[in-house]
Every structure is written in C-alpha cells, then in structure tokens.
Design a protein that fits this description.
single chain; alpha/beta; Rossmann fold; Pantoate--beta-alanine Ligase, Chain: A,domain 2; 6-stranded parallel sheet; 4-stranded antiparallel sheet; 10 helices; 21% strand; binds adenosine monophosphate
C-alpha cells in the first residue's frame, strides 16, 4: 500500500491508473476506522482495482463548538487495517495541502443540505460536498462508496454528482452495527459506559417501529409518537429529531409509501448520534397488502 501525503502524488497515481484503463474505487473517511468503514472498502475491492482510501478529518464539516479537535485519530491502527484489506492507496493529506491559505471556494447542494442534519449542524453539508468534490477531482474514481449510516450525506453527494455531471458512480452500502445493535460510529468512543448502554435505545426503538410497520402500520404520526415515547423512557437519551421522510426529497411523509427513511438523531451526554431505517413499500399486483422491505 502506498501512503500518499500530497495532492500532486495522488493525482499522478490516479491519472496513471486511469490511463492504463483501470477502474479506480474510492472510499473517503475521517479515519478511526471500524467495521462500517471496512465494509465499504470490501465492497470497493470487489468491484475495483486500484482502491484508494482517504483519511482526512475535514475541518470544514465541523461547526463552531463541535468536536474537530477531539475527533479520534488513530493513523497507525488505520494504516494496518487498510494494509490487511489490500488497499492500494492511502491518501492522507494534511489540512494545508487541501486548504491552502488562499482557498476560497465552496460547493453547496441547495435544499437538501439545509434540513435535518443540515439544520442541526449549519454549514456541515457544504463542508462535506466541498471536500468530496475536491477528493473526487484528485482521485478521479469510477466508483465511490458511502454508508447509509449517513443517509442524507449519501443523497446529497448523489445530487452533486448528477448536477455537476461527475463521471463517478455512488454506491451506498448498508449500515454495520455492533453486536447489541448500536450503529458503528467513530463517535461511539466518546460514550461513557452508561451512555453506551443507553445508546442502544436508538436501534431498539427503530426495531420496534419495524415490527409495527410489518404488522401493517402505515400512518407516520402514531409511529413517531411511539418512537418518541420509547426514547423518553431512556433517561440518558435526549431526542434531537425523529422523522419519516421520502428517501428522495427528504420531505416528511404522512403515510409510508415507496422508499422512505426513518431518520433519528439524539444526544447521550455530550455525544450526538444518528441512525436510520430504510423502508421500501412495494405494491403487489392482485393482492390487498403490499410487500415491505425494511433495512435497519
Ligand atoms: P466517516 O469516517 O464518519 O466520515 O465515515 C466514512 C464513511 O463510512 C461514510 O460514508 C459513512 O457513511 C460510512 N460509515 C460510517 N459508519 C458506518 C456504519 N456503521 N456502517 C456503514 N457505513 C458507515
């Protein structure tokens, strides 16, 4: 595995691979790698060669007072895991290489970037789209892999790729959970033992909602009411929002239909966690009850 620190070197490596007709796969990360990240890299390895992974804790996607300084950094452990997986390029630039003092540009996907996570974290998605477009231009991937854990981020990046005619296909991979259901996240490391136990309420409440939907519930308001009550039963959890939205527009729904996402964000002490559930309602010909496929 080549460890690449400069934009020029990364560009040269990717241009050489591209010229040789190779299919570049890319997984952007902020490091502190866990199984969620590794699942994206395995998916990339199945489809692409070479595979590039970036580790860059992007200051522009952290708001004032957020956790940029204390965000976990574990370069040596990350490097070893990537080496084991057979990653070809580890692109790990430092901040001035990406944002020199004269840097002045930004990329913003209007509308989608202002709601839900965007409302809770102003400027966050503009920071994400700006870095992802830069990384795409440096790495020139044919396929780039993102987790559904950050469902709104994946939707916004798809929109950017479409709007700007980028030659990159976005692959969205399933959420990887801990054994007790908590969605894996680098931020889980911030949780105290009690908060860590409490945080499983997100997954338990989503799983309970899945049961209700499988039993035929379709109206969103009562589903959300039950969900809020479940979170309220956990004293260490403070719900930020829960909403059922159309998976394309991210607008709230009154009734489940087609592809929907249940989005949730909550705080456990100082740590803010997000999770979601994908609900696909498929009309079935000639039968009264439609089919539903639910992915936690
Ligand atoms: P991050 O390092 O948090 O910026 O995440 C890098 C990529 O890993 C993003 O596409 C995330 O959506 C994805 N990711 C993070 N956690 C998970 C998870 N538990 N399951 C699947 N993908 C994940």
């Amino acid at each position: 595995m080549e460890i690449i620190r400069t934009v020029e070197w990364m560009k040269q490596s990717s241009r050489t691979a591209e010229a040789a007709g190779r299919v570049i796969g890319f997984v952007p990360t902020m490091g502190a790698l866990h199984e969620g990240h590794l699942s994206l890299i395995r998916a990339a390895k199945q489809q692409c060669s070479p595979v590039a992974v970036s580790i860059f804790v992007n200051p522009k996607q952290f708001g004032v007072g957020e956790d940029f300084e204390k965000y976990p950094r574990a370069f040596e452990a990350d490097r070893a895991q990537l080496e084991n997986l057979g990653v070809d390029y580890l692109f790990a630039p430092d901040a001035p290489a990406i944002y020199p003092p004269e840097f002045r540009s930004a990329v913003r996907v209007e509308g989608l970037s202002e709601k839900w996570e965007g409302r809770a974290r102003p400027g966050h998605f503009q920071g994400v789209t700006t870095i992802v477009l830069k990384l795409f231009e440096i790495v020139r991937p044919r396929f780039a892999y993102f987790g559904r854990k950050d469902a709104q981020q994946a939707r916004i990046i798809r929109q950017m790729v479409s709007d700007l005619n980028l030659d990159c296909e976005i692959v969205v991979c399933p959420i990887v959970h801990e054994a007790d259901g908590l969605a894996m996240s680098s931020r889980n490391a911030y949780l105290s033992a009690a908060e860590r136990r409490a945080a499983t309420i997100l997954h338990r409440a989503l799983a309970a909602m899945r049961g209700e939907i499988e039993r035929g519930a379709r109206a969103c308001a009562p589903l959300l009411e039950t969900f809020r009550a479940a979170i309220a039963s956990e004293p260490l959890a403070k719900l930020d929002y829960v909403e059922i939205v159309d998976a394309d527009s991210f607008e709230p729904l009154q009734f489940l239909r087609n592809d929907c996402l249940v989005l949730v964000a909550a705080r456990f002490g100082a740590t803010r966690l997000i999770d979601n559930m994908l609900v696909r309602i498929l009309p079935k010909d000639g039968e009264r009850r439609e089919e539903c496929i639910i992915s936690l």
